[in-house]
Amino acid sequence: MRPVVRFLDDDLLERIVAEARDILARLGVTIHNEGVLRMLAEHGVRVDGDQKQAFLNDEIIDRALSAAPSSFKLYDVFGRQTHDLSGHNVYFTPGSAAIHILDHDTNELRPPTTADYVRYAKLVSRLDHLASQSTALIPSDVHQNISDSYRLFLSLMFCAKPVVTGAFTIDAFNIMKDLQLAVRGTEDELAAKPLTVFSCCPTAPLKWSDVTSQNVVDCARYSIPVEFISMPLAGFVAPVTLVGTLVQHTAETLSGIVISQLTNPGTPVLYGGSPAIFDVRYETTPMGAVETMMIDCAYNEIGKHLGLPTQAYIGLSDAKRLDAQAGLEASMGVTLAALAGINSVSGPGMLDFESCLSLESLVLDNEICGMALRLIAGIEPREDFPALPRFEELLKDQHLLISKHTRRYLRQEHYFPGDTIDRANRARWQEEGGLTLGERAHREVERLVAEYQAPELPADVRADLTERMEHEARRWGMDRLPHGSL
After folding, report:
1. Do residues 88 and 102 touch, judged by C-beta distance below 8 A?
2. Cis peptide leading into 386, omega within 30 of 0?
3. What distance in Å separates the CA atoms of residue 249 and residue 442, rounded to the nearest whole number?
4. Residue 59 lies in a domain
5. Could you list the residue range(s) of the whole structural domain that residue 453 is in?
6. What pTM did the predictor assign?
7. Residue 397: inside a domain, yes or no?
8. Do residues 342 and 310 lie in contact, with contact meaning Cβ atoms separated by under 8 Å?
9. Coil, strand, or helix at residue 376?
10. Number of structural domains found in the chain
């Protein structure tokens, strides 16, 4: 039996959805994009052009929900399936997009560089419990107008896993789409085997900017999957109650689904988000707060109720170092996400309110994800009945270490973490150096990066990717890409 957790009963869930629908019909959603407003009006949506408001009734919402797929798959750069985003399947990916990296040598924050991103991509390629990569770092050594596409470029060059990404400008989408076409070859192939998921974020409360709404439309035109990242802050730009925040999150996410599905019915979407409570004491948005995690798990239930695959930013920490708080918040979030059946879980590796990536935290969080995946595999009999023969063998030999039954099922039943997790007795731990968690995690980072093997992309694909990226860099005054990117 698969263990599960729920936070909403059916009546409360349906009431939340009904209230969100009522808000969209009565108050509407603000959209700062004339083209999107025109498109909605053409589909029968009541639009107030002066106020830039779109009012979404039940018929429009139901039409969009019926068009949105209940599941979809993701594929790596070689076209191999990596994800089946359906049911209660759970996949983990690093959080994004950090403006700082925690430098292990100095234990201080600094702006990331291309070299940091390359190390990150190499590391993710070796972490078995992270099914996808994200554009987790924003390199500071390139022009800001190519930072979106450059991150995707580096990801495709150095790691075969599919990419969770996004664009902060409208122009960036075109080059990011072209980079994917360089890998897939044709638009039909890209639609058939999606390589990326784009994060598209409404603005709380109940708004879509020109850029983000256009990103939704552009992704839909090419059938590129989108995860809707509604970010209500409970007690600040959302009601202080968890239920009220869920009503707002539902309304904002439904509005994105309408934009996507009216543009191109059948476009893959994830019912996602990155909400948080607002800690009035410090004026911060704690991603590691238990209430933040409760909102994530609850809206996941709403997404599944609506028949959609789900996503959440959960399993990250607000700690500033790889310390007990980092482990506490990451493990609690990852475990709840797994038990809730959130399909795509974004967060591992992130610290400091999702502004900082730590490679050492990423290695630790990968182990947490492995444990959570074992947890949701549940308990099932494996030739355990009848029990009598096993206990006869145990009483006869006084152990089962080399039993055929033990050898057959040891790896399935017991999760063995890597060297980051200390399970040695004290004497052995001291003999092997008495390393702290941070030291063990750093040693594992160094080992995995040193053992990295580049994905064997065809030479013409690598050349095409490089040519497209270099051309984009020259548009913004860069004669060459930073060392290490090629």
Report:
1. no
2. yes
3. 38
4. yes
5. 1-379+417-486
6. 0.97
7. no
8. yes
9. helix
10. 1
